[in-house]
Structures are given as C-alpha cells and as structure tokens.
Amino acid sequence: MNRVLRIATRKSLLAMWQAQHIQARLEALHPDVSVELLPMSTRGDVILDTPLAKIGGKGLFVKELEVAMLEGRADLAVHSMKDLPVEFPPGLELFGICEREDPRDAFVSNHYAQLDDLPKGAIVGTCSLRRKCQLLAHYPHLVVHDLRGNVQTRLNKLDEGQFDAIILAASGLIRLDLSARIKQRIPVDICLPANGQGVLGIECRSDDADTKALLAPLTCADTRSCVLAERAMNRRLQGGCQVPIGAFAELEGDDIVLRGLVGRPDGSEIIEGDIRGHRDDAEALGTELAEFLLSRGAGKILQEVYAANELQS
Ligand SMILES: NCc1[nH]cc(CCC(=O)O)c1CC(=O)O
Asked: Is position 193 within any domain?
C-alpha cells in the first residue's frame, strides 16, 4: 500500500523550504507514504516590476497551485497563511494550520541596529502597506520606498545600498537560516503583524478524505485558534488583496486576545482595537473586532486604498 502524496509549490527558496519542511514531517509521520514535490511558477513570480497591490494582490501566487490540485496533478499545497486569500475556490479548503514561527516583522540593516536609530530621511524598503503605515505613524521622519521580490532579492537590494533598512517577516529569515540578518524583532505594538504571519497552512481538495487523514496530525490547535480569529477579522473587512490591515492573536489560557488595526498607507491615521474571549469563539471574536474597526471608520480608509490602487493600475 504505497501511497504517493504530491505537494504543489512555488519555486522560490522560501516556498521550497516550506514544502520540504512539510514533506519531511509527513514522511516522518507516515513511513509508508512517499511525498514528492511539484515545483511550479505562478503569475506573481513572473511579474516582478509592479507593486503587488496594483496587479491583483496575493491570489496571484496561489492560482496555478490550486489548478494543479483541482486537476489531480497535486494533492496539497503549502502556503504562508498570510499570502492566502480569505476565501477558497470551490472544491478546495484550508485543512492544516501548523505551529507558528516568530510572527513579528524584522528590521534588517547593514548600518543601524534598530528602528529608533534611523536618522531623518532614512530610506526604508517594504512593499507592504501594513508595514508602511505603521512605520510612518511611529517614525514620521522616515521615507518608505517600494521593495519587491523574494527574500533573497530584497536582501540583495539592501546590500547594494538602495535602502538604509528593509522590513521582512522574521519567520521567512529564520526558515532560510538567515536569522543573523535580523537586527531587531519589531515589537507588535510598533508593527502589528499581518493575519497568519509566521504560520504555514495546508490546502487540499475538500473531498480528499485520504489526504486529510494523513495531514491531520500536522495541525497545531493553539495556532489554529489564533489564525481563525485573525482571518475572520480580515474576512469581515474584506481584506482580500494587499491592504493596510494588521491582525494578531495570542492565547492567554483558553482566552484569545486579538488585536487589529487599519491604517492609511501614509501613516496619518490608524484605527485600532482589541478584544478578548474564549477560543471556542475565535471566528466570532474576529468578526466582532472588525465590526468595531468599521464603526470607527475603517471602511472609508479601505475604500480609499482600493480606489487609489484601481486608478493607478
Ligand atoms: N509577503 C511575502 C511573504 N510571505 C510569507 C513570508 C514569510 C513570512 C510568513 O511565513 O508569514 C513573506 C516574506 C515577508 O513578508 O517578508
């Protein structure tokens, strides 16, 4: 009874690391199953010169993988949860949610030890509206420039001298064995992470009970509760593509403490809130916090961001 599981994956170093990590875990759990990788390119990997928000956002990186699963060429895909749209296409679902790596954003620089040390006019690279708005809100004297590409490309652009510092997810650097490049793990009070940051999620066909049985032991119940709350908040805000939204949940006993914010990309306004409740109500908590943010004007900010991106595309 030799079963083969195929993992569809992007070809970037980080995506390959993530797929190989799940491959190794599955092989250790199920010695009679052989796990193969199906590396593929996505539209998001091919279009490299346009800010992501203008070319359709996160879904660009998963479509080809999803088609491969729906056509039966692959059984599962491993994703960074924060890159996944909040809804899945019919026939596919999020089944596994793995243990969270460090969720914080990382400050990376060749000249400065921390955000506080950056002088007036220093140029910081990031392509994330969430990072941009929080950086500018706390450090209005900084200048934020777009920075795209995979982790390696972004580090190269820093090393070439195009930026004084760049912001990346700590988890990606840690996974690629690049944690020595992290100068500061930015406190979540200064930069609230994106929903699902630092978490690997596994997508498979909804009707594929055999694959689901093999994937079941990969899920971390605590991480799952937190990520469900974070994603429910984004879903209610309709934060589908690249948006200035932060959502971060932690467990305290059986309670979830969820923090959320929506901000103007230029940092001139940030609407934030938090909520606490039992982990069994994770998704309801996320929705309730989103309602609160909307009641404080988050919807207007998000509409303006969407309109601006449409006009420029
Ligand atoms: N947006 C790209 C992306 N998607 C996932 C990660 C790694 C972090 C994670 O696992 O959440 C990164 C790199 C980054 O944001 O610096």
From this structure: no
Model pTM greater than 0.80?
A: yes
CA 156 to each of CA 45, 105, 111, 257: distance values in angstroms, whole numbers, following the listed order: 17, 18, 15, 37
Q: Is residue 192 assigned to a domain?
A: no
Cα→Cα distances 103→17, 57, 78, 278, 289, Å? 17, 21, 18, 21, 20
169 lines ligand 1 (CB under 6 A): yes
38-47, 147-156, 192-201, 290-299: which range is least confident on average?
A: 38-47
Enclosing domain of residue 116: 105-185
- Which of 83, 105, 208, 281 is flagged as catalytic? 83
Q: Ligand 1 within 6 A of 23 CB?
A: no
**Active-site residue flag, 83:** yes
Predicted ipTM beyond 0.85: yes
Instruction: Judge whether 263 lies within some domain.
Output: yes
168 lines ligand 1 (CB under 6 A): yes
Take atom 1 of ligand 1 and give the residue whose Cα is closest: 83
Question: Over the stretch 150-198, which tens digit does the pLDDT of each residue have?
Answer: 899 999 999 999 999 999 999 999 999 999 999 999 999 999 999 999 9
Residues 141, 62 within the same domain: no
- In angstroms, the CA 79 to CA 287 distance is 23
Taking CA atoms only, the protein residue closest to ligand 1 atom 7 is 172
